[in-house]
Design brief:
about 180 residues; mainly alpha; flat; about 0% strand
Length: about 180
């Protein structure tokens, strides 16, 4: 890996990257961000295409940018293999989930009042919450040994659970704390 994290990946590696993100797409209940722990395991732990810090920075950069939440997938792919990597990850994550979402929306809309559809939607809520918590745990890994970061995370969770305050204020608080070098 060079300074930027870019690898000269072979066609086989690009296909493996595409295939892995294709599979993750079908598991992304609650959005692509919920599969970030497995993305981390694959591109950092198993394939060593990105460092832990570059993975976290890629997700943070894409989440801070305006636009769809799924942009972090393209940033990960780009940092692993340039434009070809961005295309492989983005197509892989978008193709199955988009197709499935269009079909499922049409199907469930025509059956929205049935017990099975209502139960399915209710059952997905705890699954989505668990996947989001796992993502937060992975993204907090680089700062878990810093007490100020743990306090900031706890305050953020408490404020989000107890108030209707916009998350943008908490993002701003995190930016200020980081800019002041407290984390």
């Amino acid at each position: 890996m060079n300074e930027l994290g870019l690898h000269g990946l072979s066609a086989g590696d690009l296909f493996a990257l595409f295939s892995h993100f294709l599979m993750l797409s079908l598991l992304a209940v609650g959005g692509a961000i919920t599969t970030a722990p497995d993305m981390h395991r694959y591109v950092v732990g198993e394939r060593h295409w990105l460092s832990d810090d570059l993975f976290t920075a890629s997700v943070a950069l894409a989440q801070a940018a305006p636009g769809p939440n799924v942009l972090f997938v393209a940033v990960l792919g780009f940092n692993a293999a340039g434009l070809a990597g961005a295309a492989a990850t983005l197509l892989g994550i978008m193709l199955p989930s988009t197709t499935l979402a269009l079909w499922a929306t049409r199907w469930s809309h025509s059956r929205r009042d049935t017990l099975g559809v209502r139960a399915f939607k209710t059952g997905l809520a705890p699954l989505t919450l668990g996947l989001l918590l796992a993502t937060g745990w992975i993204l907090a890994d680089p700062v878990r040994d810093r007490p100020a970061a743990i306090v900031l995370i706890a305050v953020t969770v408490a404020v989000m659970l107890k108030t209707r305050l916009s998350p943008l204020w908490l993002v701003a608080l995190g930016a200020i704390v980081g800019a002041l070098g407290w984390i």
